[in-house]
Amino acid sequence: MKSAAAIRFDRNELAGAFGDIGTDLPLLVGIALAAQLDGTSVLVMFGVMQILTGLAYRLPMPVQPLKAMAAIVIAQQTSAATLYGAGLAIGVAMLILAVTGLLDWLARTVPKCVIRGIQFGLGLQLATIALARYVQADGLPGYILAFLAFVVIVLLLGNRRFPAALPVVVLGVLYAAVFQLDGARLAQDFGFRLPAMHVPQLTDILTGFVLLAVPQIPLSLGNSVLATRQLTEDLFPERRFTIRRIGITYALMNLVNPWFGGVPTCHGSGGMAGHYAFGGRTGGSVVLYGLMFLTTGLFFGAGFDHIAGVFPLPVLGVLLLVEAMALIWLIRDTVAAGRDFSIAVLVGLLAVGLPYGYVVGLVVGTLLARLGSRVNLVTRSTPAS
Questions:
Q1: Three-state DSSP state, 68
Q2: Inter-residue contact 63 to 50 (CB < 8 Å)
Q3: Global pTM?
Q4: Cα separation, 173 vs 118, whole angstroms
Q5: Which of 173, 184, 325, 351 falls between 20 and 30 A from 99, CA-CA?
Q6: Helix H or strand E encompassing 252
Q7: 35/28 Cα distance (integer angstroms)
């Protein structure tokens, strides 16, 4: 128990630090550009939340941008004020759910097979993004780069002496330095800056709640809270965290971020799967990951759009694909129970294929699982003729 609670800073934790970058970086860039956010504020606050979370949980508990919220902001060019208002609104909503015990009730109500379905659906979504968008982004050179990165990961994945993510990231950095980095602009953008303060207004909080927070809450309940708690039990059975604690730290992040120009954030099972797949076993991977964003924001925040666009998407795609596969593979423990496996697959397909698919899958899967359990109970209790 003592060793499980210790934080390490070794090559495996450093490799694990890159396990979620394929999800986070494109979302941060998309949100920042669409809502015209201050780059320093976005990077510094994202880094601070990573560091605090790593220190608080002492395992690779990730911090991610809110995905449903990000998709709406990017598609509709939502204003920064509305985004900050939505962050504060969802923080209040999650805090209420946590302290009233509604999250605990939800955890008792939703069966494990439904959680596996949510993870399966998220894995399918991430894999689709990785293959359809990122890997194809740079044409033939990108395909070659992605192939080399994939070969390195296949050969080294799980190797504690030579962690797979490190040579892949080095490959991406070298590619960026040769083909994409503008050294003169990088030098021009260098300079120490602090986040900009922002005071959310009541109208922005109400508008943000309706436009952004309401679509986000179902996904957060399914993936950020329930699925993350389940994955924590899967990967770290000796560490027991209540659903309420995860909900409270989720809420606190969003009660702080809007005042300093940070994007709304959450926890996520995909991020934990990514950190773990590439070697992260303690909060050290999350702290190191946060330090990267914090340092970049403090000294290169003015050039955020340029710096973020330099790292090659094909490499991000390969890293994201490994994270997706780690999530999809979790469904294996439902295969032996045919009904649970069927429900998990159905929930995943509903989550991917329908508007508000995560809440639809959550409700439908739970009803089917509960109905099946009652039918089995009645069947067992009925005397044979």
A1: helix
A2: yes
A3: 0.88
A4: 33
A5: 351
A6: helix 243-256
A7: 11
Nearest CA to 226 among 366, 373, 23, 367?
366
Give the CA radius of gyration of the chain: 21
pLDDT confidence of residue 379: 53
**Rounded Cα distance, 127 and 122, in Å:** 9
Geometric angle at alpha carbon 72, from 220 and 63, rounded to 5°: 40
Average confidence score pLDDT of the chain: 90
Phi, psi (degrees; rounded to nearest 5) at 53: -65, -45
Of the CA atoms within 13 Å of residue 199, those in its CB half-sphere come to 0
- The pLDDT tens digits for 340-371 are 999 999 999 998 888 878 889 999 999 999 88
pLDDT in tens, 284-301: 999 999 999 999 999 998
Residues 6+ apart with CB under 8 A from 76: none
Distance CA 153, CA 147 (A): 10
Residue 299 CA to residue 310 CA, distance in Å, equals: 17
Secondary structure class of 265 (helix, strand, coil): strand
Q: Which residue has the higher pLDDT, 90 or 30?
A: 90
Q: Compute φ and ψ for 68, nearest 5 degrees.
A: -65, -40
Q: 336 in helix, strand or coil? A: coil
Strand partners, 233: none
Residue in this structure with the two tokens 């689709």, named with its chain if needed: 128
